[in-house]
Amino acid sequence: MSFLSQTLARVKPSPTMAITGLARELAATGKDIISLSAGEPDFDTPEHIREAAKAAIDAGHTRYTAVDGIPQLKAAICDKFRNENGLDYTPAQITVGTGGKQILYNALMATLNPGDEVIIPAPYWVSYPDMVVLAGGTPVIVEAAMQNGYRITPDQLEAAITPKTKWLILNSPSNPTGAGYGREHMQALTDVLLRHPQVWVLTDDIYEHLVFDDFQFVTPAQVQPELKNRTLTMNGVSKAYAMTGWRIGYGAGPAELVKAMGTLQSQSTSNPCSISQYAALAALQGPQDYIAESRSVFQRRRDLVVRGLNECPGIVCPVPEGAFYVYPSIRDLIGKTSAGGALITNDEAFATALLNETGVAVVFGAAFGLSPHFRISYATSDQVLADACARIRRFCEGLR
Length: 400
Description:
Aspartate Aminotransferase, domain 2, 12 strands
């Protein structure tokens, strides 16, 4: 009898973490590697946030806090939702965790029973299905095709809902595609959800502030207030304020759910890092000009990468509405052979050959549930991105 849990056998390690680790190992051997697999801003955390963390240490804020967040941070989160999203919450409806991932995980663990279904649009963030499985639920994958802007349609959502459906997970703008649900698209989905009162919405808004051109961010409970009492809205400071390593995420939802999530957290990690909480407080209450500045940089990089990839033979790269990813199609490259002799049977074979022959590390589309594609994170310098696109173009030109 195996010592390890049978549940663990159904869960895969994160492909993005694995590829990032492999790229680091290859670079450590002296190989010329460009890693475009990690999803985190390459900027430093703003200075006033760093200073707030130092001040928290000096003030002695180094002890346990309330399990799901200090009162000051919860109040600031309430203000954020009220001012930016038009949503009114009380501190009892706010939970703070060790990153957005813990908020999602706690919600699923606190609500799913064996047989419960969770609808997940694909391409999806790699952790969604595995978190559902760990919580005892069943992921129901709905493909959001490139021709539909990587968005699921109302008809697809309607068809996926069954009496066993408990949650719909929505991520807008999306990792890995950067696709966003504008008000019209979001309204169409919420109209479907109104007809199915057993279905709750778990919305991942972590890329809320990284939107481009004239795209206007909306969140489900904002578009349809009748859904607020069955929506958990997750967000955090990691992407908007370049605070990935600080590990602070937060969620807003019905008090009963938030209380249950707090009970679960009390028996797992307890409170998030006290110092990080004070840093997050400074992020939410301090100057916000950093967001516009970083957004401008990311938009420039997006345009550079989209243009560069669309110049590669056989690659089609849509223009994303937000985040810092592109998710191009390589359908026309399947079946070809690289200059190094690798047969491109699928997107994983493409990514492997690309890394081996050019040193460019990308994440293959199967990891996100939709092939044949790959994901690039453009959260790195213009020079590195231009070099990577040139290498990918040479690789594609060498395919026969």
